[in-house]
What does this fold into?
Amino acid sequence: MQLTTILGLAMALVATPAIALPAASAPGPGQVTIQNVGYGGSGCPQGSVSTIFSGDLTTLTMIFDSYIASLGPDIAVTENRKNCQLNLDVRYPAGFQYSIFSADYRGYAKLDAGVTGVQKSTYYFSGQSEQISAQTTFKGPLTKDYNERDEMDVVTWSPCGNAGAVNINSQVRLTSTNPKASGLLTADSVDLKFKQILSIRWRSC
It folds into this structure.
């Protein structure tokens, strides 16, 4: 902003004290941080999850190194379902809230005929009862890298303040109507990692 503009705005505020500056629609760069990441479950053992905010704070990418469900005649039934409970302690300036309004899932599916794969995530903020869920279903026969997007039917907002922990309870599971069939879900064929990308919306409060 130029100096003349700043001086002109200051003079206007002195002359009319009731005029308020327009509120920013999102925090500025560097004002949002993830203070702590906690997680646990059969699909996310310790040391297997990383999180990255985009530069404009509109997407949050979570990368899972070991989130793989598998099914087959010689595979233990405990491998048919994997889960992960994840908690992100997000710090942001007072006067803002954020919500999650869509989620992208990137991975790999290899399912024989008769095999169904489901990826489901439930999102909620600590201290609030509202929850939102997204689910993607895959039907065999299928072999592909996938990039699916789920739009949230309901939007919930984080607390209005400077801390809002978001909890993500997710699972991947495989079922089959054919006892001889095999299946694999969520391991990316390129880097063997499952990626979940959340779209973030901000507002002032």
Notes: The mean pLDDT is 81.
